[in-house]
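User: We ran a pulldown and think these components assemble together. Before we commit to crystallization trials, I'd like a predicted model of the whole complex to look at. Sequences follow.
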Amino acid sequence: AQSVTQLGSHVSVSEGALVLLRCNYSSSVPPYLFWYVQYPNQGLQLLLKYTSAATLVKGINGFEAEFKKSETSFHLTKPSAHMSDAAEYFCAVSVNYGGSQGNLIFGKGTKLSVKP
Amino acid sequence: DTGVSQDPRHKITKRGQNVTFRCDPISEHNRLYWYRQTLGQGPEFLTYFQNEAQLEKSRLLSDRFSAERPKGSFSTLEIQRTEQGDSAMYLCASSPFRDGNSPLHFGNGTRLTVT
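Assistant: Here's a predicted model for the assembly, 231 residues in total across the polymer chains.
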């Protein structure tokens, strides 16, 4: 079975500091991985996705993520945090077998706070 | 592309009442998904449709829940005899499914409160 684990339910950084949100995955086959962001009382917005074309994936709003097979990780980073980055971030893996292919399994999320 | 639309945004109901939510996907997206999200958790899969066919239902979807997607367009999710444990955000998503790489596009959700 496939799964993702997000380490740290809450991360707090100062404005301008590096953002690092951790995600580890479990999959017996090459995974498709996604990061989504959710602002309060809204749905989820796609930040970026890993498709095996490149291990370093660039997304919207200055975020990027690096796929490391040896570490089964897909951590999300941003060099300099902005107040508008405060939100909840979800890592997800796409089910890639059988009739469930395409369905997403989400982590529990990491809430990012940005201090002025 | 007007995005995925969900109605209503908020619903407050008394325990035991029935509620129905509507989702309008992005046009021509063949897949439509329903997820449930409770406080402090990631979205949990409930069910999905490929066109008008409901292809999978999670064990979370008890027999009080039913979903339809007539003619492969909009979808409805009905909860009968609501319970307080049904209080959650119900998210709809659609995708132009080709393979597992196709991202899901989410609506803003319907927040259900059962009193």
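The two ends of chain A are 41 Å apart (CA to CA). That may be worth checking against your pulldown data before setting up trials.

User: Thanks, that helps.
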